[in-house]
């Protein structure tokens, strides 16, 4: 007798994207994302506006995910939701909806760590992707986090390196703002970097022991360099935009790859994965692929749609937790600081 199919509804609302996905076993049937353009006006995410937009989006997004998947809500076996880390107001919307919907359907509720979700996005089965084998190292890079995670099993992970101040994504965003790009500026730096020389300008690189990162000094270095250059030539940024983007991006990537190489060497692990919003950066993907050839790594890079915040990664993580019987009760609350 064939095993029963497992259907998981995933809900992600940690920052400014409202997302819902339906997972059937390990395959995504739908992954709906409602983005919030309002933050472009302010040069960054405004928490109060984000939470209000989530309230408007959560019901239609979940409804669209269920309809696109071609199932009824009665077929859903469990609801997985992002408990944290993230913005408190945003997390409360997703958590409250998940609790209410699970209670109405009388099905299990599964809390998911957002960063674990990024790592386990690699196990979504799209019929083409190659999945990492254990143990592997995962560089998780996003606007709020930069970590190297040792992954021993689906639910057995350890953060072995993290940023002591700012994340790589914050360095991209700050640099983009200094260059005059609108929010989010990271993708624009990536676009212009493709036409520039990464060795054109030099910026300071932090000397941090072990496997930890630091990007605050780099941000300051970029700020002072641009202030000095534009003081003598107001058109400096416009005249050197591509080279500036390539140099900034190249420096950030060099910092990331250097630590990843050290982790691989220290632990003797050549299974290397990347995850998180910054893993969508074409320069980082290229650098990782090139390093794989030099260092004999097996590299795993998720599809673009599973790099940025999405509910598919929450659903696949929820499925592994569901199979372990790791359920939450109705007393569960959003946790803006929620470590792996």
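^ structure tokens above, recovered residues below v
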């Amino acid at each position: 007798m064939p095993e029963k199919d497992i259907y998981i509804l995933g809900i992600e609302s940690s920052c400014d994207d409202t997302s819902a996905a339906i997972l059937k076993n390990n395959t995504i049937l739908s992954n709906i994302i409602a983005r919030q353009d309002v933050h472009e006006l302010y040069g960054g995410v405004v928490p109060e506006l984000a939470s209000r937009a989530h309230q408007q989006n959560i019901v239609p997004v979940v409804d669209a995910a269920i309809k696109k998947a071609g199932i009824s809500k009665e077929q859903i076996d469990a609801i997985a939701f992002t408990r944290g880390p993230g913005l408190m107001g945003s997390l409360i919307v997703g958590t409250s909806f998940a609790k209410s919907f699970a209670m109405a359907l009388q099905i299990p509720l599964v809390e998911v760590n957002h960063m674990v979700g990024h790592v386990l996005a690699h196990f979504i089965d799209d019929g083409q992707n190659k999945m990492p084998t254990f143990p592997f190292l995962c560089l998780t890079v996003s606007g709020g986090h930069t970590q190297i995670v040792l992954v021993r099993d689906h639910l057995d992970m350890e953060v072995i390196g993290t940023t002591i101040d700012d994340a790589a994504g914050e360095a991209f965003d700050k640099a983009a703002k200094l260059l005059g790009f609108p929010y989010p500026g990271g993708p624009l730096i990536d676009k212009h970097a493709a036409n520039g020389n990464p060795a054109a300008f030099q910026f300071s690189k932090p000397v941090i022991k072990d496997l930890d990162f630091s990007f605050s000094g780099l941000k300051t270095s970029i700020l002072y360099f641009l202030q000095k250059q534009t003081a003598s030539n107001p058109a400096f940024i416009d005249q050197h935009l591509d080279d500036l983007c390539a140099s900034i991006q190249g420096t950030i990537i060099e910092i990331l790859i250097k630590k990843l190489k050290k982790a691989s060497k220290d632990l003797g692990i050549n299974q290397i994965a990347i995850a998180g919003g910054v893993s969508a950066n074409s320069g980082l993907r290229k650098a990782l692929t090139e390093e794989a050839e030099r260092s004999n790594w097996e590299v795993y890079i998720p599809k673009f749609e599973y790099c940025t915040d999405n509910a598919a990664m929450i659903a696949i993580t929820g499925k592994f937790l569901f199979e372990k019987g790791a359920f939450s009760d109705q007393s569960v609350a959003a946790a803006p600081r929620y470590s792996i």
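The chain has two domains: 7-123+307-324, 136-301.
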